[in-house]
Specification:
The protein has 200 residues and is of the alpha+beta class. It folds into 2 domains: 15-86, no CATH class; 93-199, 60s Ribosomal Protein L30, Chain: A (2-Layer Sandwich). Helix content is 23%, strand content 21%. The chain has 3 helices and 9 strands. The strands form 3 sheets. A 4-stranded mixed sheet has the order 6-9-7-8. A 3-stranded antiparallel sheet has the order 1-4-5, with no helix packed on it. A two-stranded antiparallel sheet has the order 2-3.
Length: 200
Amino acid sequence: MGRLVALLLVIVGLGLSACGAREILVLLPDDDGTIGALSIVNRDGTGKAIIMDQAHQMMLVDPAGSKIMTMASAAVMDKEFGAVLDSLPAPGKTFILYFETASTRVTQESQDALLKLFAEVTGRQAVEVLVTGHTDTVGEIGTNDKLAKRRAENVREMLLERGLEASFIWAAGRGERDLLIPTPDETPEPRNRRVEVIVR
């Protein structure tokens, strides 16, 4: 099971089963280090909810359903969950590429980020890539939608040329809907003319 909204849920028996635990839940930081929260309630809705909101907080559930809350030490994490954690894919990375005005050409300033993107994609054993194109607010909404999609497709093509499987790349255009820098209509803003690429 993988990370989901800042947590990794592990349900195992492993060595901790010696203490009578049937299930073990451990809360881990998200890829960026933030900690989410998990609210645990009985199936029938009775009883007080138990909140897990600290890194390496661990709940042991015995066969009778009793719950024990504790913290997983580094030694326990390594011994009991090391193999699971080592099998997880590398954390996701986000790259932002900026584009010339009304163009699908990546700016000169973004060439370094483009090379880092290529290296990240080729250096992973398993990869999926989400490519989202954006524009500033200059021009018609429909025109910007098409331009944003073309920018995303341009980056997708560059990744395909480097051997990435087409089925692992998703490209979409958001036009001027998700501005990185909020501006009024018809405002040229270089930071909004971008493609955001998530590699995971």
